[in-house]
Amino acid sequence: MNQDPYRLVVRDPASRQESMVTVSPTVMRMVPDRVRREHRIVPVEYRDGMITMIGERIGDEYTDNAVADATGFRPRWLLAAPEEIARALNAVGPTDPTDESLNGATFDADYLLDHGLARLPRLGEELASRGLITEEDLGEALEEHALLRVLAERQRLPVIDLSEFDPAKAPVDAIPEPLARRLHCVPIAIDEEYLFVAVPDAPDRALAEEIEEHTNLKVRPFLAPAGEIDALLRRIHGAEYTRVALFDLMERFPESSAHIVLSSAQKTALVLAGVLLLAAAAVFFMPTAIAVFAIASLAYTLNSGYKLLTGFAALEHHYDQDATPEEIAALDDRELPIYTVLVPLFREAAVLHQLVNSVESLDYPRRKLDVRLLCEEEDTETIDAIKALDLPPHFEIIVVPPSQPQTKPKACNFGLLGAKGKYVVIYDAEDRPEPDQLKKAVVMFERSDDSVVCIQAKLNFFNQETNLLTRWFCLEYATLYDLILPGLDAKNDPIPLGGTSNHIRLAPLVELGGWDPFNVTEDADLGIRLHKAGYRTIMMDSTTLEEANTKLPSWVRQRSRWIKGYMQTWLVYMRHPIRMMRDVGFKGFLSFQLMLGGSFIFLINPFFWALTTIFVFTQAGLIQDLFPGWIYFLAAAQLFFGNFVFMYLGMAAGARRGYHGLAPYALMLPLYWGLMSIAAWKGFVQLFTNPFYWEKTEHGVDIAQPGTSV
Amino acid sequence: MSDLILDEAVETYAPPAKAAPPKRRERTFARTRREGLAITLVFAIFYAAIGYLTVVSGHIVQFGALERLADAYMAWWNEPPKLAAIGLSSAPVGTLSFLAPALVKPLATSLTAIPLVTALAGGGTMAMVNSLLARCGFARPMRLLMIVLVGLNPMFVFYAGNGSPDMLGVFFCTGALLAIVSWKISDEARYLIGAGLAMAVAVMIDYTFLAWALALMLTISFVGPGPRGGQIKLRANLLLYLTPVFYSILIWTILNGIILKAPFRWVEIGTVQTATNLLPGAGLASAQAGQAAGDMAQVVLGVAPLLFIALPVVLLSALNRRDGLGFGLFFIALCGVAAIVGGALLEDRASFVSLATGLPLLIAALAAMAWVFWAESAWRPFVGIAILVGLGAAIPLSWHAMQTYSYQDQEQAFTRFVESRSSQEGTKVLGGYKVGIDPELAMANYINDTLKPPPNSILTDSTVTYGVVLTSGKPGEFVDRADYSEGEWLTIRDNPVGKVRYMLVANHNENDLIRKRYPGIALGEQPGLVPIFHTERYVLVEVEPGASAKTAKNPARPTHSSQPRLFTPPAPLEVGPVQVESGAGSEGAGLSPLPVEEGGATATEVEGAGAGAANSAPKVEGE
Q1: Where are the alpha helices (DSSP H) in B270-410?
Q2: Residue in B132, B254, B119 with CA at minimum distance from that of residue B198
Q3: I want to staple A10 with a disulfide (CB 3.0 to 4.6 A). Which of A78, A244, B130, B328 is the partner?
Q4: Chain-centre distance of CA A549, in angstroms?
Q5: Which of residues 222-261 of B touch A (CB under 8 A)?
Q6: For residues B449 and B472, what is the distance between their CA atoms, to the nearest angstrom?
Q7: Is B521 in contact with B508 (CB distance < 8 Å)?
């Protein structure tokens, strides 16, 4: 270090007089070398609580703040030519790390930083990586703002509070929103030379260069909490985000959007079919009726047969995939990707604690979690409850602006904007996923090829023993997630996803337009859309426990939405059936018809049951005449064998999961199907009267139930 | 040193090597699917070929199979098709199994369909035996040898090719045994499902398998819930197994209740043989406990001699290891035996203890020994040898039993056919059967070629005359008991004038409802009912004015109220040299000019018998 003072000519901007000043090394050390060089300033004097600085210009608030942060004093400025300042910096400040005069000196962290001999990584990361603290300790010990202050001090960067920042003042046009979102920064001020940008961490050169290249301005970073940056971006671009969340899929892939229930061609076809049917019935009543029953019987048989074959085949095998404990243990937390967890909430204040517990129970490093609590703006109760919990920084509240339709997929799309994760998963508020589910998904994604875009975990219920309805529900889910869906996976047929616990690669999801906000079973729709795009969904042997509806009216509402959604999805992809067949193949097309189109069968169940009952008691010849020959065989087979085998499949699925206590209740499953028909009609009517209405399921009714061991 | 890192000393970190994808879960059992498929095909083709020759060349037709094929045929091809043709007179699966081949008319009417289903069942049984042996640890050469020994057992060969539902029962019982052994080894619930479904079907093939079903239920209880379960799991296991069994019985009971207005009629019907080719008075001997037990021992010795070794061995092993499955298999075999003997006593019919009842016991014995092989590693050499000896000895013993055992269904004819390669048409065999299908064929040919009746013009009791209905290929010409409700059919029978033109009656079968109502009809003793054609077993009667149940004659006072106009076919069918059973009766093979009533009454020769030349020679398929 050059201990000799250095003299240079300066000009006082107030008096406009020039003078010669001496730069003292001692005074130089009041401001770190890094700050000096970055701002190209030189301290010359400290007196009476004011530090005199030499700089290239005055009125630079950014530099003022940097000096104030470094020294604790507001600066007084003198001006000098840039080359003079540069010579002063080089002449007086230490620049050569091999300078022998450094030998034997005591180097502290500041010194190393100042001399560019060290870099300061993310503090938390370093503390954890060195085993000085655990991730959990970090999360608890250092709240985000405190961590930010530490970073600011280390990085010599100013900190800014964005919570009260007026979005109208932000120079939004300076950086396009997609760029800002990708770089995770928000412009907060601008002048002729600089763009002042809020960032969550010390910006690397690449970020700065990218912005500078785009804006032709130099970047002046300000540190701000990541959540506040995201929130500000949403406040600034809220309208655009909402528009994207609602209309992106519709604009880019209109043929896959459920924003209309029936296309013009479908309406025409339906009207035509209806007219022809009525005309035929008027002229040839019996043959027409027989034909109708024949088609219905055939549909029944194909639907039942397909599901039975799929289910029983899965009974014989384990088609779902798993990650071994060794594979999971081999994961290094430092290398894990960020995982976005979307939790759409609406009037869920009662289950927030459970939600937090469930997320906190996940075996995944906190700093790699991006948990987004998606709340509707009107749901102030839930928002306030979340705020009151004072959640750790990996939780983020995202307030979704009001817009119609107000649906879960719209909220998820909104939450997807700005998601940081490589993978994304949706959980409902009451969900209790297995702790290692995320890591299992990571393992399975990593060992799969890029065509595997989605991994569906199994769903079941923690309150299965509450009443008969929950037991039936549990058996139904066991049949679906343990048998039917794995069976579809094994045959590489389209899989209608479950409502939660579908783990998806973020990039392809965004590429495909996210979820359909107009579809009330956006999960089923996404599963079909993924398959149509050539992607694959595989099943994971990991279970998320949910809360089953315990009350019949609530169950009917929920089920009606699901069936309505299945019908919606079927109608969407049947707008162009030839194209659909071409995209998914004949086998996949048939599977699609039987799985989703099969939801219409719930509508005709009551008619067949009624006919059977009437025939048993009256032996009416008319009914007999309606089922001649092979139609009778099919219908009889369905009656005697189809119903039994579905009931038995439910029992088998329950046994497979180890839910032995549910076996007797499976015998009564035919009654459950009766309830489904009621729900189906409700959903069918609503499909035309209120297609986008989201029947909200009440959660938290049964949260006192302990988790069921699987 | 603070918590910083130096650029020059950045810690390098190497991520772990990409994990190899895990294998699919370990299978509990090695796959034998291809092997099983090959075994199924080989044996099925073999059995089908033997069966085809037996039926078409040997004219050895098991009438139980014929009846079921006919019912299945009428279910499809009646006008209109009627599921009710399947009927409720016997367990339904035998008929249902013929539904598929009956779709193809020529297959059914030529009787080629008869061996097809049971051949497949026989082949499938062999495949399942292979799987069972594989899971119990037998090496491939050993188990293939065992399979060959079982598969070439002459009883097995005969029943795999004769269409009788007995082989279907063996198939499903084998499946159940395979499932229960697999369940014991793996503790996987899906095998209980397999066992339940298999027994549910088996019970609907032969009601005596209910004893097996109960024995299997007890076996599951003996085995218990396993190391990872308690009473709830045991209950669930039992439910898993019993549900399909119970359901099949429930549905059958409901159908009996709805259609016959007697829900438990099926219990009464049991497995009474009503074969049309059963000679009068045959199969009616009463059963005595000691005699039935002795007969059963004969059957076991003849068909399943391995059982005599298996029972003590598996019991010893079970006691040695306190093994629930061992006890269970012992119990299953015992129940199988007891069910037959008990059935004979309940039915009071000695012929209930037929040779065919030994077939499932053969499989039960093999399963028991296979389990001991798995369970007792020290005993393996002995067990292996015992199995081979038992199965090997069963071949000549079965052959001998088929030739000599009293209660059988044409096994003796089969042995004769194998030895002589000659048609057995018209021969008689132990068990009281008259072998052959020519009477049915002749009547069918007459109806088709000469009579050419309009639809719904021939009243008949198809539960007896099924052979004619089937071989005619035109069930629409007949007014059978499936076409109308019971009451309507009886009304037509009682007042046939204007409703039907003809009646087809079985000469010697007391179960024929037309014959019951009109005694002596075959001899023209009923006013207005004129016999116009007859074969050995059937007579075709023309309905003329005056025919009515009201004016039916009492058989105690026979009168010849009208001259029967009988057309006698030309020369009877050519049959090869056959050994007619001594004391079998004076009736020869072929067609007699007139039917012979019981009691020896004969009708006079018919004038204008030469008019019979108008009849075409009876066609025999395959000759």
Answers
A1: 289-303, 306-321, 324-347, 358-375, 380-404
A2: B132
A3: A78
A4: 25
A5: 229, 232-233, 235-237, 239-240, 243-244, 247, 251, 258
A6: 10
A7: no
Average pLDDT over residues A197-211: 80
* Nearest CA distance, B242 vs chain A (angstrom): 11
Task: Tell me if A302 sits within 8 A of A332, measured CB to CB.
Answer: no
- For residue A661, the chain B residues in CB contact (below 8 A) are 232, 236
pLDDT, tens digit, for every residue of B433-470? 889 999 999 999 999 999 899 999 999 998 889 999 99
Cβ separation B21–A121 shorter than 8 A: no
In the block, residue with structure tokens 């066992």 = B195
Give residue-wise pLDDT tens across range A412-469: 999 998 888 999 999 999 899 999 999 999 999 999 988 999 999 999 999 888 999 9
C-beta of residue B131 within 8 angstroms of C-beta of residue B143:
no
Q: What is the CA radius of gyration of chain A?
A: 33
- What residues in B contact A667, CB-CB < 8 Å? 239, 243
Give me the pLDDT at residue B525, please.
Answer: 83
The backbone torsions φ and ψ at residue A9, rounded to the nearest 5 degrees and listed phi first, read -90, 130
Q: How far apart are CA B257 and CA B249, in angstroms?
A: 12
Q: What is the pLDDT of residue A702?
A: 65
| Model confidence pLDDT, tens digit, residues B407-436 | 988 999 999 999 999 999 989 888 888 899
Matching residue, tokens 């629409």:
B476
**Which residue in A has a C-alpha nearest to residue B9's C-alpha?**
A118
Percent of chain A with pLDDT over 90: 34
* Residues in chain A closer than 8 A to B235 (CB atoms): 660, 663-664
Average pLDDT over chain B, rounded to whole? 81
Q: Supply the DSSP string of A236-253, one letter for each residue.
A: HHHHHHHHHHHHHHHHH-
CB neighbourhood size of A388 (10 A): 10
HEC string for B41-110: HHHHHHHHHHHHHHHHHCCCCCHHHHHHHHHHHHHHHCCCCCHHHHCCCCCCHHHHCCHHHHCCHHHHHC
pLDDT in tens, B584-613: 333 433 333 344 444 433 333 333 333 333
Contact between B542 and B566 under an 8 Å Cβ cutoff? The reply is no
- Give the residue from B570, B441, B552 showing the smallest Cα distance to B497: B552
A616 interaction partners in chain B (CB closer than 8 Å): 258
Longest dimension (CA), chain A: 119
Residue A490 near chain B (CB below 8 Å):
no
Residue written as token pair 């029936």: A262
Q: Do B20 and A447 touch (CB under 8 A)?
A: yes
Give whole-number Cα distances, B365 to A21, A491, B329, B334, in Å: 114, 40, 8, 10
Q: Which amino acid is at A249?
A: L
**What is the per-residue pLDDT across A88-102, written as a single tens digit (0 to 9) for each?**
887 775 544 443 333
- Whether B4 has its CB under 8 Å from any CB of chain A: the answer is yes
* Separation CA A250–CA B192 (nearest Å): 50
pTM of the model: 0.74
A142 vs A164: CA distance, rounded Å:
23
pLDDT per residue as tens digits for the range B367-388: 999 999 999 999 999 999 999 9
Closest by CA to A401, choosing from A374, A377, A421, is A377
Please, are residues A427 and A489 in contact by the beta-carbon 8 Å criterion?
Answer: no
Q: What is the pLDDT of residues A313-346, one digit of tens each?
A: 787 767 777 888 888 988 888 889 999 999 999 9
Could you tell me which residues are beta bridge partners of residue A186?
A198
Checking A55-62 for CB contacts under 8 A at 24+ apart, the result is A55/A79, A55/A80, A55/A85, A56/A80, A56/A81, A56/A82, A56/A85, A58/A13, A62/A158, A62/A194, A62/A196, A62/A220
pLDDT in tens, A588-630: 999 999 999 989 988 988 888 888 888 777 777 777 777 766 6
